[in-house]
Amino acid sequence: MNIVLFGAPGAGKGTQSTMLVEKLGFVQISTGDIFRRAIKNKTDLGLKAKEFMDQGKLVPDELTIQLVDEVLVGLKGQSFILDGFPRTMPQALALEDILKKRDLVINKAIFLEVPKDQLVARLSGRRVCKGCGAVYHIDSKPSKSEGVCDLCSSEVVQRSDDQAEVIITRLKTYEENTSPLREYFRGKGKYFELDGALNADQVFKNLKQILSS
Ligand code: AMP
Question: How many other C-beta atoms are found inside a 10 Å radius of the C-beta of residue 52?
Answer without folding.
Answer: 17
